[in-house]
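Retro notes (design track)

What went well: tokenization of the new backbones is finally stable.
What didn't: we kept losing track of which sequence belonged to which structure.
Fix going forward: every design gets posted as structure first, then sequence, in one message. First example under the new rule, 99 residues:
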């Protein structure tokens, strides 16, 4: 077995879609071969919310919060994997070569 480690630092986020996008981008950069284990580690947590309102805020963050909440409720009720985003489906296709 060969261990490969990659890391990425960036802006603070509490969005699963942002974390998934970063992890998928890192996975895309390694050699394509069978993988036994993939792990994601998060750090730098804060007790206070990081809310900076923009003068030109479009309300998009609020929509993402509602979507994240709805997805979490579905996963709690019906189990993980009940809903997949298009980027998750593409990642599965890349890893498993499924059509």
């Amino acid at each position: 077995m060969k261990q490969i480690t990659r890391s990425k630092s960036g802006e603070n986020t509490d969005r699963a879609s942002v974390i998934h996008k970063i992890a998928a981008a890192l996975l895309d950069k390694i050699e394509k071969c069978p993988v036994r284990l993939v792990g994601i580690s998060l750090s730098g947590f804060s007790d206070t919310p990081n809310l900076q309102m923009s003068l030109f805020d479009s309300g998009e963050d609020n929509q993402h919060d509602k979507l994240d909440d709805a997805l979490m409720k579905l996963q709690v009720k019906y189990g993980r994997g009940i809903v997949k985003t298009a980027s998750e489906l593409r990642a599965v296709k890349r890893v498993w070569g499924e059509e």
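Added context from the reviewer: The chain has a mean pLDDT of 78.
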